[in-house]
Amino acid sequence: MSRFASNPLSSLPRRARQRGQALIYGLFVLLSGLVAMFFMFNTGQLTAEKAKLVNTADAVAYSAAVMHARALNFDAYTNRALMANEVTIAQMVSVDSWLEYSAEHATSADTAMLCTTNYPVPGGLQLLKYTPACGVLAYGATVINATENVVSPVLQVTVLATETAKVALQLAQTTMYASFLPARTRLMQEVADANYVGDGVVKVDLIPLLDNYTLFDGKPFITPNIGNDRTRFKDVELSAAYKDGFVRNRSWSDSSILPCNPVPRGKANRTGSTQLIGFDEWRAQDSATLRAEQLRFRFGIPRCRTVANYSLGTGQQSARKNGGGSDWFYSGVPNFFDVSSEVLSYSPDSPTAAKRVDPTLRFAIRLTRAKAQTMTSDGRSQIKPTGRLDVMKGAQAQDVLAAVSTSEVYFDRPVARADGKKELPSLFNPYWQAHLGDNSAATLAAAAALQGINP
């Protein structure tokens, strides 16, 4: 019997006897590959989640900035509309006063001034400019009086309609101001939810990390102005109204070119203007007079003396608080919204170097997404390795992912002013614009503190 009969394997070739030794090594390689695959899966999902959260935070911050800019521009547009209404009232008062004056002047021209005759008083007094005007007034007296009777009620109705529009505009400003913060909160959450439709839940912090809209250098960015705080609106209102020369000054004069002598000479003066009295009254007044002068001797001393005075016509109209009598109703300089005094203190002429720049409304918000909502293996993913394969555990602080974004609203006039001056930020011009900005160190530190991280 052969000596190899007791060991069957000894009859196999050497390669065949080594065929099963790589199995253990292959199992280790397979296990390592699975671990790497799960690690890459989780890393990819986490990266995608983070990118989406950052993009959503940017969208939320920018949406809030657009809303801030629209709120500022809305107040600017409504302030300009209020300004236009004020100018309209000033013009209506001015026209009514002028019409009343013109009607009286036309009557005087036809009677006391004898301007329909061949020997008009202004002509005899050598008033070269007033004489032809006197003739026009005298011959047009009927038309002028009829025009006053028709136009004056229309002017009053126009003022009442303007007052109604003012009330609506002020109510719109107040409503926007009162509802802005709740509306902004809803908008931000709606934008965040729109980015995660069918993909779980994302939360927008109710309290922003930075909010210059509610607090800018210690004051709200936008503030209401009532009572004596309306001075700024009054000043701008007067400036706008007085761009119409008819409202500002309706005066002229005419004097004889001859020196004072025994032959009478004349001086005609026409005055007219419209003023804003305090905060509650627009008052227009018009009048014209003619004075005849002649050289007279008194105690042997020659002196130019007034020998006759003529009132050519007067007119007046007032729109005041509560109206009454012939005065029209006027609610006064409107309450309005403007940027705060702190915002207005920023200008190139500021004594403080830090305030020689344009003010910027900054806003920073944080979004969070719970780890359980993510599509990683320890979140909502259907792939959940166990045992030794479960080597990927999220390290999110307080089990949430967080992203921070900052937006800015700034004032920028699109076209340079014709006078070359710099346009300062205010709520009288709708030039507020929005963009995303960089997160400041303070903002990031505040966000880290909310997650219990010590930077």
From TrEMBL:
Q: Please indicate which superkingdom the organism of origin belongs to.
A: Bacteria
The regions listed as transmembrane in this protein's record are: 22-41
Putative Flp pilus-assembly TadG-like N-terminal domain: residues covered: 20-65
Short name of one Pfam family for this protein? Tad
Q: Which InterPro entries match?
A: Tad_N
Provide the alphabetized UniProt keywords.
Membrane, Transmembrane, Transmembrane helix
What is this protein identified as?
Putative Flp pilus-assembly TadG-like N-terminal domain-containing protein
What species is this protein from? Pseudoduganella aquatica
